[in-house]
Design a protein that fits this description.
mainly alpha, 2 helices
Length: 88
């Protein structure tokens, strides 16, 4: 496979969780600020939308954080407490 195709796929593997986390954050924001809207509409937090937004946000952030953690572990950039234990 061509090197540019591999890099494009790698970028997509990071962009998709980033877009998911962004969408989850925006969904949580909209659900929270819906309570401050017009009084004719629902004057409360939309809990289903809030939970869905939190779930999407957490999945996106966890994926990106895990990717960075394992990349740094591979390149030996981690603090000693995060490095795997070695037998003596």
């Amino acid at each position: 496979m061509n090197d540019t195709v591999k890099r494009f796929i790698a970028v997509l593997l990071l962009v998709i969780p980033g877009v998911t986390a962004t969408y989850g954050f925006l969904t949580m924001k909209d659900a929270f600020f819906a309570q401050f809207g017009a009084p004719e509409t629902n004057p409360h937090v939309l809990w289903g939308t809030m939970i869905l937004g939190f779930f999407l946000f957490a999945i996106g952030i966890a994926f990106i954080g895990g990717w960075i953690f394992f990349r740094d572990r591979k390149r030996n950039y981690l603090a000693p407490r995060f490095k795997p234990k070695r037998r003596k």
